[in-house]
Amino acid sequence: MSVDLKKDLDQIPPLVSDFDFFHVEYELPTTSFRTNSRHLKLSSPKKKYDRGTWRRSC
Fold first, then answer.
1. How many beta carbons lie within 10 A of that of residue 33, not counting itself?
2. Strands (E) located in 4-58
3. pLDDT category of residue 3 using cuts at 50, 70 and 90
4. Model pTM greater than 0.85?
5. Contact between residue 20 and residue 2 where contact means Cβ atoms under 8 Å apart
6. 33 near 56, Cβ under 8 Å?
7. Does residue 2 register a pLDDT over 60?
């Protein structure tokens, strides 16, 4: 099961053992979120708003 916590990342620590989390960034450059995402053990690709197949893995 996967859940969406858009703009609510503070809930991740208490829920991390119960769910698989994925984070998608649309605006920030990967250098701005990569370190924090890795620390939280999140899969955090950067995508474009048009929802096409383009993505940059972090």
1. 17
2. 20-21, 46-47, 55-56
3. low
4. no
5. yes
6. no
7. no
Each residue of 8-50: pLDDT tens digit? 778 878 877 777 667 788 899 988 988 988 888 888 889 888 8
DSSP-assigned beta bridge partners for residue 21? 3
Give the contacts of 9 (CB within 8 A, at least 6 positions apart): 23, 40
Compute CA distances 5 → 2, 20, 21, 54, whole Å: 10, 11, 9, 22
Angle at alpha carbon of residue 13, lines to 53 and 1, rounded to 5°: 50
Residue 45's alpha-carbon distances to 4, 8, 15, 24, 55, in angstroms, are 14, 17, 21, 5, 6
Q: Is the pLDDT of residue 53 over 70?
A: yes
Q: What is the DSSP letter of 56?
A: E
